[in-house]
Amino acid sequence: MTETIGFIGVGRMGSEMATNLLEDDYDVVVYDIDDDRVEALVEKGAQRGMSIQNVADRVTVVMTSLPTSDIVNDVYFGDGGLLHAVDDETMFVEMSTIEASVVEIIATEAKGNEVVDCPVIGTPSEAAAATLTIVAGCSETAFERVRPILKPLGNRIDHVEGVGTAKRIKLANNVMTYGNFAIAAEMTALIEEMGIDARRFFDITRSGAASSAIADAKMPKALDGDYEPGFTVDGARGDLQYALSMKEDADFSAPLASSVAERYTFAASADHGERDYSVLQGALSKRWE
Q: Which structural domain, as residue segments, surrounds residue 173?
């Protein structure tokens, strides 16, 4: 069976994934409220979707990559949403970083349609390079169908049982990522406050166990004052709030995760919400005073 792909949500991540599907010779129909992003993909060979329902009517697999739980709910359940009058053979691949309960409800309401809970781990540049880690929570049958579609998007694809499991793994991963950078930002800011060269400190710490991939990616830009968004403070805060809801669901104490969220809330309160979350280091170092 030759799959045709609908891609709804072609922002920083979605546009790169849709491009890689086109380069792998898939027919891709794209839709986004940002027409400029749609047009850029049409110029690469994608077909323009006129509406959410129009996309669903033209494809066998719909992939969604959207910024919030509320938007995902609207795309699937709102007027003209994906679950209205869709063909029984259509597969839904939900790739957003959102609350697990949202995709679980989608799977319940989709009835005969296969739903793949499929967040990705990586940055827009890794999406462009097709080096994402992809976690697919679904049945074995659904995984066998979706795996060829995911291969052009990443260099690691993990199958886990159960819709909702992949979202929870992604959210926990993000807490660890944001937390890792937050402690590096805090200590680098402390070093600066003590009159020690922050770049020298960062270079020294890279040689030992304190080194990390996220600090390597974010700290040089932070120290240069380059906060062009890869992923914003507000985006990080949203992920952290979704993750903190998991501890409530499990009745589990996670004070460190809560402290991480507080640090990013601090950065947002200093009017850095739309900047890359590496700005946390500058905010903590009082560079903005």
A: 168-284
